[in-house]
């Protein structure tokens, strides 16, 4: 969710903790994951289009293996679906997909599983997981009020705790790539703490650097710190599966003296940009998307979030520019924005992707539920059961999500040459059996509890329904202690 509220006291409430002391405290708290839990992800991918190998430790599991005998849903039309298929992985890369593959390496039995690409969440405020399910019970806990109240007093370690819990939750549900839309970077220390969580947990995706809660709409984001973060974290390879972006503020929300230098600064650093735009009827009346187009700020490196209220001309501008839209149908309903325009976007040919948005509002990181709701919204608005098939919605949650983040040649499908981000879903669970139409089962029946195995960049992160290298009890306990301390402040 975008935050349109300013707080004049925000600047006076920024913490003065330095990075060295903060990271020392975060490291102490990070006993939750332990030394094994923070091993660098395997054969890592830096940047958005390239994927060189950097020789990182592969962590748990063999360097070369074949997933054998599963029902492979590749999401690649050239590969297709293979019942009784194999996926050969070496050094974190998919080598081959087929039947009866003769390959070296360990043989890992995938019979009884659907083998598919990891899910891609294209817009998630990870830090707000610190106050999961706290929104919307009173005026004081309305989403934006809650974000400002907790945001202005959040320490760097609070961002670390919220982001870490969210990333562990993502792994458990089968999300292997995430766009962390971090809209509470109050100081360089906050940025470093948030990124430390990514470094430890090790998902793929984007870190979208955003303004703090309560930040004045007349002040430009800290462009110097964005450049520092790019140097110290991304150019140096400290978060090798991640790339950097700008979580920006669009025309209509801020004036040209702010949105123009922010956009130009990000593009000057080669960074993609992301905007909450046309989220409400009032924002739709401002035609933020039209203004972005007139400012020449739409393109393949531009992501728009929510965009519930757009004109046909605006949707055509999004499509023709190559920009993408990330919808969050669960949060858009719960906050009262309205009905996600799934059918309008699909009919307009827009690159449409999915997200859970914020767990303070929606509670659950279950992208499977988001797929179900997306399918239902399209069919309900169309008043036609066959208006969209589940394969199309699976595409939104996998390959289209990857394309929207500039990672389409890296992940999003089980394609030889891409990195091995793989999820294995049990077919014989009470909640999924009997499986006749596999795409329907995935989009309409599956949930986090049916996710047996999660592989990120070739590394096993969940196996047999159990997270590996993560002490979940300590992660939960330290997060609970952090929110108790924040509320006490």
Q: Can you characterise this structure?
A:
The chain starts with 18 loop residues before the first helix and ends with a helix. The chain has helices spanning 19-29, 34-37, 143-151, 156-173, 188-201, 223-235, 256-268, 281-286, 288-294, 312-321, 329-334, 342-348, 359-362, 367-382, 390-397, 399-404, 438-444, 472-488, and strands at 64-73, 81-90, 93-98, 106-109, 113-117, 119-124, 175-182, 204-210, 242-248, 273-277, 302-306, 324-327, 351-354, 422-426, 451-456, 459-463, 466-467. 57% of the residues are buried. Strands 1, 2, 3, 4, 5, 14, 15, 16 and 17 form a nine-stranded mixed β-sheet that branches. Strands 6-7-8-9-10-11-12-13 form an eight-stranded parallel β-sheet. It is built from 18 helices and 17 strands. Helix 4 (156-173) packs antiparallel against helix 18. Strand 7 (175-182), helix 5 (188-201) and strand 8 form a beta-alpha-beta unit. By secondary structure, the protein is of the alpha/beta class. It is globular, with a radius of gyration of 21 Å. The chain has one domain: TIM Barrel.
Shape: globular
Strand content: 15-25%
For the secondary structure, the number of strands is: 17
Structural class: alpha/beta
Radius of gyration: 21 Å
Q: Which whole number gives the mean pLDDT?
A: 90
CATH architecture tag: Alpha-Beta Barrel
In DSSP terms, counting alpha (H) and pi (I) runs of 4 or more, how many helices?
18
Give the domain tally.
1
- Assign the CATH topology: TIM Barrel
End-to-end gap: 25 Å
Low-confidence stretches: 2-59
Proportion of residues in helical segments: 25-40%
State the major sheet. Answer: 9 strands, mixed
- CATH superfamily heading: Metal-dependent hydrolases
CATH class: Alpha Beta
């Amino acid at each position: 969710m975008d935050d349109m509220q300013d707080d004049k006291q925000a600047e006076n409430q920024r913490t003065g903790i330095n990075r060295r002391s903060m990271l020392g405290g975060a490291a102490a708290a990070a006993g939750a994951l332990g030394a094994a839990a923070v091993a660098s992800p395997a054969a890592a991918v830096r940047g958005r289009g390239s994927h060189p190998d950097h020789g990182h430790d592969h962590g748990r599991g063999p360097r070369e293996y074949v997933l054998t005998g599963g029902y492979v849903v590749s999401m690649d039309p050239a590969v297709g679906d293979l019942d009784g298929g194999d996926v050969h992985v070496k050094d974190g890369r998919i080598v081959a997909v087929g039947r009866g593959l003769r390959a070296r390496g360990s043989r890992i039995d995938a019979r009884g599983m659907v083998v598919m690409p990891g899910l891609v969440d294209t817009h998630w405020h990870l830090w707000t997981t610190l106050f999961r399910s706290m929104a919307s019970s009173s005026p004081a806990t309305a989403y934006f009020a809650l974000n400002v109240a907790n945001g202005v007093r959040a320490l760097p370690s609070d961002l670390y705790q919220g982001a870490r819990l969210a990333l562990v939750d993502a792994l458990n549900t089968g999300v292997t790539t995430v766009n962390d839309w971090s809209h509470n970077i109050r100081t360089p220390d906050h940025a470093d703490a948030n990124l430390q969580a990514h470094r430890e947990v090790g998902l793929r995706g984007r870190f979208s650097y955003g303004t703090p809660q309560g930040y004045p709409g007349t002040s430009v984001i800290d462009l110097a710190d964005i450049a520092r973060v790019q140097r110290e974290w991304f150019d140096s390879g400290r978060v090798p599966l991640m790339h950097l972006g700008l979580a920006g503020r669009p025309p209509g929300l801020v004036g040209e003296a702010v949105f123009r230098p922010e956009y130009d600064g990000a593009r000057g650093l080669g960074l993609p940009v992301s905007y909450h735009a046309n989220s409400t009827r009032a924002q739709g009346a401002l035609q933020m998307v039209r203004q972005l187009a007139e400012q020449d700020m739409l393109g393949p490196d531009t992501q728009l979030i929510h965009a519930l209220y757009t004109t046909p001309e605006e949707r055509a501008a999004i499509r023709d520019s190559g920009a993408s839209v990330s919808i969050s149908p669960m949060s858009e309903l719960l906050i009262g924005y309205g009905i996600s325009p799934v059918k309008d976007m699909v009919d307009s040919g827009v690159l449409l992707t999915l997200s859970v948005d914020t767990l303070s509002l929606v509670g659950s990181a279950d992208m499977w539920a988001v797929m179900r709701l997306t399918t239902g919204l399209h069919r309900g608005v169309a008043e036609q059961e066959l208006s969209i098939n589940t394969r199309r919605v699976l595409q939104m949650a996998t390959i289209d999500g990857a394309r929207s983040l500039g990672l389409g040649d890296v992940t999003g499908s089980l394609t030889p040459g891409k990195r091995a981000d793989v999820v294995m879903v049990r077919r014989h669970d009470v909640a999924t059996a009997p499986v006749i139409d596999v795409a329907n089962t995935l989009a309409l029946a599956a949930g986090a509890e049916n996710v047996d195995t999660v592989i990120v960049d070739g590394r096993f992160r969940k196996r047999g329904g159990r997270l590996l290298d993560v002490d979940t009890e300590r992660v939960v306990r330290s997060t609970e202690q952090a929110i108790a301390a924040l509320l006490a402040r």
